[in-house]
């Protein structure tokens, strides 16, 4: 579900014509015509890699942090995110130049408009590493700060490339050429973290090498490779089975496993009860309330909050974002209300997938009932 008015009113490709479609995953909003086939040139940034421990030199930093224990001694490295965003922007431009194009209309579109789409993965992991519940004010602020950083430094890198190679062919007449950036289209004033007047001045002199820059996409496969949760989504469960060609195996939220092991309360009984509760930890009394808040699943987070966080980062996304909605018992009333809220807030994409759960629980063959009964501490 996309909202065509927002997609067009907030597009930097307005000067090309009306955008009439998106891609399958609803994050790509690019102009197409009979002579041009739009191309998405994408890369995702693994956000958990920018969580650092205070006082630990970068060269001595562990390859990967796990769990929320110790989060008070951690911070998010925005300067490194800025550096990597710049590198990604340069690399995607190289891909546009050297790529193989199976059809001429795709090559023509890419060379004329040079759109790229930078996304993220592991936003939920990042919140956990910093001890932030997904729906907390701190997480909501970090969400905005991350995407402001990505958009700003993608603009900066694109302008630097334009200074060397010239702006993209159809730059003249686009909103950015008139000094209108994505936050302006949302009537949002960026923070003081980065020098926005400077980047505006730079762009006014040299232009941009790319018509579009940011498009948070689904990252189901690449997230698995790097061990992160998908794109900007909350965890759907803390224990689940994954079926692949070689068979089916159980996956446990590594952060939760680490924290419960460090606390000395992880056990077969506890694992059994989490499975019984469909991957939720909210009814397990051994787990403290602060951890319960951090390890809420998407089914335990208000979807209005999920939409509002999409709106918060939306003013730094010049394409769109692949936003999934999770509703336990979806109906037309709930969906209509949510979509009108998303539309009224100015989102471009209101929904990619609508995820629901079965009305009746499946028989839990993997639950050991003897262990379940032995856990007298479990909240009913």
From TrEMBL:
Domain named Ribonucleotide reductase large subunit: residues: 196-218
PROSITE patterns in the cross-refs: RIBORED_LARGE
Please give a single GO biological process term from the UniProt record.
Answer: deoxyribonucleotide biosynthetic process
Any GO molecular function: ATP binding
- Keyword entries, A-Z: Deoxyribonucleotide synthesis
Q: Does the keyword Disulfide bond apply?
A: no
User: Mind telling me which GO cellular component terms the entry cites?
Assistant: ribonucleoside-diphosphate reductase complex
Q: Pfam families, from UniProt?
A: Ribonuc_red_lgC
Does this entry carry the keyword rRNA-binding? no
Q: Which InterPro entries match?
A: NrdE_NrdA_C, RNR_lg_C, Rrm1
| Family, similarity comment | Belongs to the ribonucleoside diphosphate reductase large chain family.
Q: What is this protein called?
A: Ribonucleotide reductase large subunit domain-containing protein
- Source organism of this protein record: Triticum turgidum subsp. durum (Durum wheat)
Classification of source organism: Eukaryota, Viridiplantae, Streptophyta, Embryophyta, Tracheophyta
